[in-house]
Amino acid sequence: MSSSVRSATASSVPHQVIDWFLRRRRKRMQMISLTAKIHFMLDVVICCQDALERGEDHLGVLYPKTAILRVVLEVMKELDQLQNPENLSLVIRAIYYLSQIKPSTPRDMETHLLDLVLQAISKLEEPEDDPAGQASYNNMRADLPHLLQGLWEEEPSSAHLLSILNHLRVWIHSPKGQERAWAMETMAAFLRNSTALPDFHLPELVLQLKGLLTDIGICVTDAKEEVRPYAREILRHLCPLLPSRKEEILIEDLEEEEEEETEEEEEMEETEKTEETEEG
């Protein structure tokens, strides 16, 4: 996540834009320009950064986090205006920096935010023949695991971890290979960057985790090749969290399977080269 997003387009006095939005929260969001919404998101990020740099974890009584999050939610509902990697990345950064501010994000609000973010990402097409657009798209995807990490660290419990992973779990069942790929990539990056993942002991949570592991295990043989290594990585992160270490056998089996697939691919390439040489 970028450490700073200060820009010439941000207002000189960030709190003024936030004030304006908080006073007009009841106004229909459709009537507010996209430029104003972008200013709001930029200023939320800047205000949070300024507070954190001062060693503070709050924005003051005049700028309650929950009220700001409500505005972010209303902006997010205008998805037609956010079908742009740069705008969506800005929204992701705003939510991330708010996760660094007290109090913790209410769970129901977190659910709505993540649902809207993931839906917006699913509607984006990766730009082709546009290096700048592709860079923005890649940056947006890279920001998503940091957002998940920031939200999880507000309450680093096993139940919360499952809740966040289940948001991505929906997308690994997508019929579209691209959606399965970014969902698995995001889940793997989130787990890779998160430290001190909690063990699972409550029976109901263990059962839920095993269900998730079953789904991830299926992805090891996904038709889209890009999905498979992420599935293996996710299993390596999650299996040790179970109270029983028997799942480690599954990891070893996956590693052996991966080695066998590599050997088969090498043999096929060698065979193709031999056939081409003979034909020549």
TrEMBL record:
<dbReference type="InterPro" id="IPR011989">
    <property type="entry name" value="ARM-like"/>
</dbReference>
<dbReference type="InterPro" id="IPR045206">
    <property type="entry name" value="Maestro_heat-like_prot"/>
</dbReference>
<feature type="region of interest" description="Disordered">
    <location>
        <begin position="250"/>
        <end position="280"/>
    </location>
</feature>
<dbReference type="GO" id="GO:0005737">
    <property type="term" value="C:cytoplasm"/>
</dbReference>
<dbReference type="InterPro" id="IPR016024">
    <property type="entry name" value="ARM-type_fold"/>
</dbReference>
<protein>
    <submittedName>
        <fullName>Uncharacterized protein</fullName>
    </submittedName>
</protein>
